[in-house]
Design a protein that fits this description.
With 94 residues, this protein is an all-alpha fold. The protein has six helices and no strands. The chain has one domain. The longest helix has 17 residues. It is globular, with a radius of gyration of 13 Å. The termini are far apart.
């Protein structure tokens, strides 16, 4: 829980994440930090958005998260995507 608290998650967000995806609590601190760093610092998503989509912590960075975020950034640059986009749509459902 300390790793999630380090990223600014409240106790309620941690419990919500556990209810959504209990396996997110089994991930290593390194895995959590890697995913959070990429999604929050590089992609600019809020930590609370990641908390609401805790399944993201369980996904592969190399096979799922990074490739889909690269496509998302490309679409943003080309003007194919405008306005607010749900993180879950970008990474989980594309």
């Amino acid at each position: 829980m300390g790793t999630y608290e380090k990223w600014g998650w409240s106790k309620d967000e941690i419990l919500m994440a556990f209810r959504t995806d209990p396996w997110c609590m089994m991930k290593s601190e390194e895995k959590i930090d890697t995913v959070m760093d990429y999604l929050v610092n590089k992609m600019g998503f809020e930590t609370s958005v990641v908390a609401k989509n805790s399944l993201l912590i369980s996904l592969s960075m190399e096979k799922r998260i990074i490739p889909r975020c690269v496509v998302f950034e490309y679409c943003l640059k080309k003007g194919l995507v405008t306005g607010w986009v749900c993180l879950e749509l970008v990474v989980c459902r594309l």
